[in-house]
Design a protein that fits this description.
Chain lengths: 571, 452
């Protein structure tokens, strides 16, 4: 037990926390909390532990909540960073229904966080920077006036500089954009190539909002003719042109000349893409591509060759006279002499497409040249504080969300609440159903009364709405052993025209899935599959929007057959 | 709550290893950590690493790695604070924290770890509580003597033994060894400021930041009350005004939890009863508005001839400190473009040194007096220097001639102007002579960068 003070207080706390009726016995719990909070002379480790315990408490009323917050207020000003961050997290979690309280707390913690960012201890600095980034996801303007604190200094280690550049990119606003861009521009010519490239990508990020200034800076950088700079600038241009079509003109004017300075695969692909899509505005586009075609035999990267094929074909549509000859040569090379099968296939595909007629080519290759709405979609990632409040002051921001997701797989199957993954994220590549079972699945009792319509796709919202409006028509349990393989099950259901709306990940406990099917008379069958962790059976609940018993029974038997087959496979 | 704690030398040799929870699964965790650390790619942070089900979090202190492992998702701030506190504690007990002192005091370190952490939970890190339990005594390499005055740069008649102590005076074990009863009661108070400056290529000041700390190291028995008086006119925050002049201002202050602040508002006096050992009494910071001019200004002029590959850099360094002050150990580090072949130099003073190393120019000036100007002319051959196309000589800086960074120490000087007026002890500890009080003000550069 951590050292919290006198013995009897520790005993009381232990008793209160072990009491299974703790939530019911709230008066006693509250008294214990008061005593704990007001305990004098608790050292910083005890304070941090207490703040951690209090995370589990759910205040019953608003005044109780504000009582506790008032008592904890002094901890926010502690000199120990662990205590300050623990108190902040507790505030954020307790006040989850009061966004203005959360914002207040984040304003109060600005000072300590900034002090930690300039601390002598590099490790503390890094942890603080990760948390600053976390806060900026929800409150982008929070640190904008303190942008100077995030300027990189020469002696800092690389990982801190990268974090600072990311922060600078996220706190840009109208007042500080000039200075921030100047600072980033200075970093672009840094001796360390990695850092310079990170700075250029950051400028690319800012360019989505402040396009003109950034494009100007990037064009100047092209003038330096440095290989590692030019390749990243061209990649940034490619992404920018897709999201902000208004800068296409400026980009096209800046491009000529940079083909001499690009040697790596990513840069070449970006340049070739730009030449293909916007080639009509770049006067010497065909000649640059011709250079690539001349050297295609010595080109080592197959990705570049694929991009070259597509780009040349696109350019051919807008400038046929100049490109016809080299397109022919390129196709000849790709089909006859190329050893990489993917490139060859693409060459062959384009050749046959051309044979089919120029209209077909236009239809397929003339895709939209930009998609500004994609930029808006990404920007809407301004998440509410509650989505990350429970990760504050833990190791999650330090690793980053993406890496934490891979790490937590190691922690073993934890108890997770039922999750409904996005309807859009279907796993299309799953293990193929072995041949024998495919046949058994297809030999379904071809109940003449039931014909399920293929490809009837319901949206998730519609499913939810309909689900809640209907009553359960049929419920049964189905014997089941072990875990479910969602991909296999999904594919098997697809074969019999039952669509999966949502399915939990493999290993989730409890495991759930929601299915929908529609028969040719328009009758909808909505199904829920539920597998509890300790049970050895799967619970099936079916709702039907028109009460028809025979079709319902047929549907149930189809479902049972599929489940039975899948159940047999994995054992 | 930590699972294992170990200390590695800078080469990865384990000096201390303590397993609190026994869940290492038979693996050599220290070896695992070091391999992972050295195998990291450039942009991954080494501060927190992960392997299997274990998180490794560490700090570097005097070249040593202090590492803690945990399998839970705990607060990084608490853990880093714990590691720093352990480093300070070990420093207090052994005198200073480095490979030598740790290897001499292995038993003491293990005893300390036993008392501080129980089954991975922190029990206490306060010197007060710990001294009741720790029996082992520290082993020091050589006895402390006030005759080691050669490291202090003073001149002539001012060298009086009672007025000056070498900078290593504070680095001895805090707790008295039982045999040595003639322990001097001393207290050391340091006002240390770190200065970060960024100057643009046109000479304008982009950023200036001062981070200050008042650190106390007390060898007095605990419970001695002391009062520290700071400059009365110093104001906190932008709107406060005290005294008649522009005054000394800081933006923010924060205090240690044991400091009593009743007299702070009125007379800027801090009262506290410090435990033995090290303590940071007050932290403050100041940005953007320094009362005194910046200590150094650099006036570079660059000429390079692309045709012949000759690069000439003339650096004029002006020190703007008051004439009586000086800066010590001034080093200027100037990265150079790739492929620099030779260097010829003309320096304005005999004790300066300049050399080429690791793609940069290092100019070393051991002592710079306030108000003086020093210059150096450096000529280099850089064949094949890339840059904007153009013939003939140009005066713009070539690519790769990086920002100049200065590092220096300013003894007896604080950039913010904050000074300690007095340090008084409330009562005389029984039996011993008047305790010695040493107060030191020091500023040093954190990141002083001047762009070319």
């Amino acid at each position: 037990m951590p050292y919290l003070g006198s013995e009897d207080v520790v005993k009381e706390l232990k008793k209160a926390l072990c009491n299974p009726h703790v939530q019911a016995d709230r008066l006693r719990y509250r008294n214990v909390i008061q005593r704990v909070i007001r305990m004098p002379k608790l050292d910083q480790w005890g304070q941090a532990e207490v703040l951690n315990f209090l995370l589990r408490y759910q205040p019953r009323s608003e005044e109780e909540l504000f009582d506790i917050l008032n008592l904890l207020d002094s901890f926010l000003k502690s000199s120990s960073p662990g205590v300050v961050m623990g108190a902040t997290k507790l505030f954020l979690i307790l006040a989850k229904k009061f966004p203005h309280v959360q914002t207040d707390v984040l304003v109060q913690v600005k000072g300590p966080l900034l002090a930690a960012c300039s601390s002598e201890s590099r490790e503390l600095c890094f942890a603080a920077l990760c948390h600053v980034r976390q806060i900026l996801h929800s409150l982008p303007g929070h640190f904008s006036s303190h942008y100077k604190k995030f300027f990189c200094s020469y002696s800092e280690p690389h990982y801190i500089k990268l974090q600072k550049v990311e922060v600078l990119c996220e706190l840009v606003n109208d007042e500080n954009v000039q200075q921030v861009l100047e600072e980033l521009r200075g970093y672009c010519t840094d001796v360390s190539a990695d850092f310079a490239q990170a700075a250029i990508f950051a400028i690319g990020g800012i360019a989505r909002t402040y396009t003109d200034q950034c494009v100007q800076i990037l064009t100047e950088l092209l003038g330096l003719r440095q290989e590692h700079i030019t390749t990243v600038v061209v990649q940034t241009f490619r992404d920018l042109v897709w999201l902000c079509p208004q800068c296409t003109e400026a980009v096209c004017q800046a491009l000529p000349g940079c083909e001499e300075n690009i040697q790596d695969s990513e840069g070449k692909q970006a340049l070739i893409w730009l030449l293909g899509v916007h080639g009509e505005r770049i006067p010497n586009a065909p000649y640059v591509l011709e250079d690539f075609v001349e050297n295609v035999k010595s080109e080592t990267f197959p990705a570049v060759k694929m991009e070259l094929l597509t780009a040349l074909l696109r350019l051919f549509l807008s400038r046929p006279a100049e490109c016809q000859d080299m397109l022919g040569r390129l196709l000849h090379y790709c089909i006859e002499e190329e050893k990489d099968m993917a490139v060859r296939d693409r060459g062959l595909f384009y050749y046959r497409l051309l044979l089919a007629g120029i209209d077909g080519v236009k239809q397929i290759l003339c895709s939209p040249k930009s998609d500004p709405s994609l930029g808006l979609l990404e920007d809407q990632a301004e998440r509410p504080v509650n989505s990350w409040a429970s990760d504050f002051n833990t190791l999650v921001p330090v690793y980053g969300k993406a890496r934490w997701a891979t790490i937590s797989k190691y922690q073993g199957p934890e108890r997770r609440g039922p999750e409904l993954p996005n309807a859009a994220s279907f796993a299309t590549s799953g293990p193929l159903i072995p041949e024998e079972s495919k046949e058994t699945v297809q030999e379904l009792p071809d109940s003449g009364a039931l014909m399920l319509v293929p490809n009837c796709q319901l949206t998730a919202e519609y499913f939810e709405k309909t689900w809640f409006s209907l009553k359960v028509a049929h419920q049964q349990v189905f014997p089941w052993r072990g875990a479910v393989h969602p991909d296999t099950l999904q594919m098997a259901l697809q074969v019999v025209n039952i669509q999966t709306i949502a399915m939990s990940r493999a290993g989730a406990q409890p495991w759930k899935a929601y299915l929908s099917a529609q028969d040719d008379t328009g009758c909808l069958f909505l199904t829920e599959l539920l597998l509890e962790p300790e049970n050895s059976e799967m619970q099936i609940s079916v709702k039907q929007n028109e009460p028809r018993t025979e079709t319902l029974n047929s549907f149930i038997s189809v479902l049972e057959t599929v489940l039975g087959t899948i159940g047999d496979i994995k054992s | 709550m930590i699972s294992q704690f170990f200390i590695l030398s800078s080469k990865g040799d384990p000096l201390i290893y303590k397993d609190f929870r026994g869940d290492s699964g038979g693996r050599d965790v220290a070896e695992l950590f070091y391999r992972k650390l050295t195998g990291l790619s450039g942009d991954e942070s080494p501060v927190v690493m992960h392997h299997d089900d274990r998180h490794f979090i560490h700090i570097r202190h005097s070249g040593l790695y202090l590492v803690a492992t945990t399998s839970e998702n705990i607060s990084p701030f608490s853990l880093l604070e714990l590691l720093s506190r352990l480093a300070t504690l070990l420093g207090d007990y052994c005198g200073s924290l480095n490979e030598g002192t740790i290897s001499r005091n292995v038993a003491l370190v293990y005893e300390l770890l036993d008392e501080v952490l129980d089954y991975g939970y922190v029990q206490t890190t306060s010197m007060e509580m710990l001294r009741n339990f720790i029996q082992t005594e520290a082993v020091v390499s050589k006895p402390f003597s006030l005759f080691d005055l050669s490291s202090v740069g003073l001149f002539g008649a001012e060298t009086q033994q009672s007025k000056v102590a070498p900078s290593s005076a504070a680095s001895r074990p805090v707790l008295a060894s039982r045999s040595d009863q003639s322990q001097k009661n001393e207290v050391f108070l340091d006002v240390v400021e770190r200065l970060s400056v960024l100057i643009a290529s046109n000479g304008s000041l982009l950023k200036v930041d001062v981070q200050g700390e008042i650190r106390l190291k007390s060898f007095l028995p605990s419970g001695s009350e002391m009062r520290i008086g700071l400059t009365e006119e110093f104001c906190v925050g932008k709107s406060e005004l005290r005294g008649y002049g522009p005054g000394i201002r800081v933006d923010e202050v924060s205090f240690h939890s044991s400091v009593l602040l009743e007299e702070f508002e009125s007379h800027r006096i801090l009262r506290l009863q410090p435990p033995q050992g090290e303590l940071t009494v007050m932290r403050y910071q100041l940005s953007d508005d320094l009362p005194s001019p910046l200590p150094f200004r650099l006036f570079p002029s660059v000429q390079w001839d692309r045709g012949s590959g000759r690069l000439q850099v003339y650096l004029k360094l002006r020190c703007d400190l008051p004439p009586k002050s000086q800066a010590l150990n001034v080093r200027l580090h100037l990265p150079l473009p790739r492929g620099v072949v030779s260097l010829s130099q003309e320096l304005s003073g005999p004790e300066q040194k300049a050399e080429l190393g690791e793609g940069a120019l290092h100019w070393h000036l051991p002592r710079v007096q306030g108000g003086s100007q020093l210059s150096g002319l450096f000529q280099m051959d850089v064949p094949g220097l890339p840059g904007p196309p153009g013939q003939g000589p140009s005066t713009s800086a070539p690519l790769g001639l990086g920002p100049a960074s200065l590092s220096f120490e300013l003894p007896r000087h604080t950039c913010s102007g904050l000074q300690v007026r007095f340090l008084r002890l409330a009562f005389r500890p029984c039996g011993n002579a008047n305790p010695h009080k040493w107060v030191r003000h020091l500023s040093h550069s954190d990141a002083y960068v001047i762009r070319i």
